[in-house]
Specification:
This protein has 521 residues and is an all-alpha fold. The protein has 25 helices and four strands. The strands form two sheets. The protein has a two-stranded antiparallel sheet. Helix 7 runs antiparallel to helix 23 (464-476). The chain is globular and about 65 Å long. The N and C termini lie close together (8 Å).
């Protein structure tokens, strides 16, 4: 926690030394515990930033599988429950960062490929999705806890991490659906104006504006949109319309249990295709760990913390498979953007929010209420969040020598190809179409024409941060450059050591002997 009474130029925070300007930004540090009532609202705000994805992913899956409305509502509730459980596990037993866990778009592409390949009813399809997620997740658990992912830390410089985090923010632009032709720019602009007003202009005059800019902006715009809908200004089918009838039609309590759809089915080809999405998710999550550490004013994550984070995300994916989301669980960049805007990096706040979401998943009215948030309001929310994430990525370049041409070249090509290759995959349209294209090549056709390999390349190539991260990683570790140029010397001074991260089980097993203090604690 920051010592605000220190008058030196550098002040010690949890996880290293940062500048006074960086540390003073954080309103609540990782170990801080705001009052319970305030924490509930702050936690709800954290989850509100990722509610669009949490609802969008199950709706996309349910639509593709032609799942009936009642089951679709239960699927959305299942996403809430899994998000709450996975977040509690990650913040308590995993890497212990204040980072929300939830459904991932990285697993959406392989899931849609599986749905298309099945071509049968949703009952059989969801079981195949569950099996594929569980199988891929088990491999992720092993990669995390044997330490394979953490080893990459020593080869990851800010030259690699910066474009990965930037691409996390930029890649999410498409999910906001901001640029659609029939966009309600009045409602979107008004919501964005409120968020900017509370977070940037009124934050110095009102503590509530500082702590709850997103919640205040969304609620005010939501209420106005509801009034306009009830008075007939916004009609059904219009962007901005709030369907209050959906709440009345929802069930009060919905039963969500493990294996609620039946026993998972395991198909090797589906599992391998799903693992491509898991690989992309792991790379994205590593970037998220660096981003949340940077924006929370703590040191870069240690190898040990990365391993526990990735391993716990794998366990979260296993839980998602058992519960039957048809998707997985990963770290949410939107949550990091919320920290950047509000300065609330409290682990306790995120845990309180997770408990609220866990309970809310069983309440049908809550899920129905959330689905009434108009798209333009969600779009404005995403503009603020995703832009903040991209800016956090760029801030890592302060450690890099930007006068070195090799750094500028690597960053530029990683960003461009990180956007261009996924766009090409999007233009191709599907894994099946990509397989047809590659199978016609004389040399690589016999290899890429195989369904498993082509599906894997398609899914991986469709993920911006995975493409940009791999390109930056290879170039940064093969093009000649000093450790100082690459920012590694400065970064290592800020990074935590492995013995500074004490796991939950190490704490529980302590018998009074002195233990190192967790810098994120």
């Amino acid at each position: 926690m920051t010592d605000h009474n220190d008058t030196s130029d550098e002040i010690v925070t949890d996880g290293g030394e940062v500048s006074r300007e960086e540390a003073s930004f954080v309103e609540y540090g990782i170990e801080d515990r705001p009052p319970l009532g305030e924490s509930i609202l702050l936690g709800l705000q954290h989850y509100l930033t990722m509610i669009g994805a949490t609802v969008a992913i199950p709706l996309i899956l349910a639509g593709a599988m032609e799942m009936p409305p009642a089951e679709t509502a239960r699927l959305i509730g299942t996403f809430f429950v899994v998000s709450g459980v996975a977040t509690l596990l990650q913040t308590t037993v995993g890497n212990r960062y204040p980072i929300v866990q939830g459904g991932t778009f990285a697993l959406l592409a392989p899931a849609l490929a599986i749905i298309a390949a099945m071509g049968t009813g949703w009952e059989a399809t969801i079981l195949e999705l569950q099996g594929a997620v569980i199988a891929a997740a088990i491999v992720q658990v092993l990669l995390g806890y044997v330490g394979a992912l953490g080893k990459l830390k020593y080869y990851l410089s800010p030259v690699v991490i910066a474009p990965v985090i930037v691409l996390i923010g930029l890649s999410l632009v498409g999910t906001a659906d901001v640029t659609r032709a029939d966009q309600n720019w009045w409602l979107l602009g008004f919501t964005l104006f409120l968020i900017v007003l509370f977070s940037q202009y009124l934050d110095k005059y009102s503590r509530y504006a500082k702590l709850f800019p997103v919640l205040l902006g969304v609620v005010v715009a939501w209420v106005i949109a509801t009034v306009l809908s009830m008075t007939g200004v916004y009609g059904p089918g219009t962007l901005g319309y709030v369907d209050t009838g959906a709440i009345a039609d929802a069930s009060a309590i919905q039963l969500i249990t493990p294996l609620q759809w039946g026993m998972p089915q395991f198909t090797a080809a589906f599992a391998i295709g799903m693992f491509a999405g898991v690989m992309a998710s792991m790379i994205e999550s590593m970037g998220d760990y660096y981003a949340v550490a940077r924006i929370a004013g703590v040191g870069a994550p240690s190898e040990k913390r990365i391993n526990h984070g990735i391993g716990m995300e794998g366990i979260g994916n296993v839980i998602a498979g058992i519960m039957g989301t048809g998707n997985g669980s990963t770290s949410y960049g939107e949550n990091i953007g919320a920290i950047g805007i509000t300065g609330v990096a409290s682990r306790y706040v995120v845990q309180i929010g997770a408990i609220v979401m866990l309970i809310a998943g069983f309440v049908g009215y809550f899920g129905a209420l959330i689905t009434t948030i108009p798209g333009p309001i969600v779009g404005a929310l995403y503009i603020a969040m995703f832009g903040q994430i991209a800016a956090v990525g760029l801030s890592n370049l302060k450690y890099v020598d930007l006068d070195a041409s090799r750094n500028v070249f690597i960053i530029g090509i990683a960003l461009f190809l990180g956007l261009a290759i996924p766009q090409y995959m999007a233009n191709v349209g599907s894994a099946e179409a990509f397989q047809e294209i590659t199978s016609g090549a004389a040399v690589i056709g016999p290899i890429l024409g195989q369904q498993i390999v082509s599906d894997t390349i398609y899914v991986f190539g469709s993920t911006t941060m995975a493409v940009g991260g791999v390109i930056a990683f290879v170039l940064d570790n093969t093009i000649r450059g000093t450790r100082k140029e690459r920012g590694l010397e400065h970064w290592e001074q800020l990074a935590e050591d492995d013995d500074e991260f004490v796991t939950f089980f190490e704490r529980m097993g302590s018998s009074g002997d002195p233990k190192p203090v967790d810098k994120a604690d």
